[in-house]
Amino acid sequence: MRLTTYIWLVIFFAVTQSALGQTTPTSAEYLKRAEEIYVKVWEHYRVPAYGLFSENYPSNQKDTLTYLQGSGVAEKEVSFLWPFSGIVSATNVLLKIPAVQKKYVSYLDSLVSGLEKYRDSTRLPTGYQAYPGQFEKADRYYDDNGLVAIDYAEAYLNTKNLVYLNRAKSVLNLY
Hints:
The chain has helices spanning 3-19, 27-45, 81-95, 101-115, 142-159, 162-172; strands at residues 46-47, 52-53, 64-65, 73-74, 119-120, 127-128.
């Protein structure tokens, strides 16, 4: 199942429960669910050899990706940038919760290392390409780079680490 599909199923389930008049979970229950999903994503989608994530679970690399231009692109070894950015965004959200913030700082550090694998400095202006450069040269998109800037800005707001602020600014300088 694609990572984004998995996340949308969880959201659909929560909305359906609410619409059917089910008891509304407490904030603690929502946090518990969010953390459980987060752990499952890391367990099932993480490709430890690269510090990145796969597009599908289980990943068999015989599937085709249908959300790209000219759909029918064969599944690749790791995910494209925008789903990876979703994991960074999820981590930033968890970092906003004081009760668990310290727990997710190391995840953010790992994700930033992965995020930098999409950075392409071989072409000007330097930017983030859609797929990690260690595998292939890929297109670079304004929206992907915008997501990276937002991820870094959020990471800075959560941690006050100036490295993240400077990276957000460097991405915005592309425009």
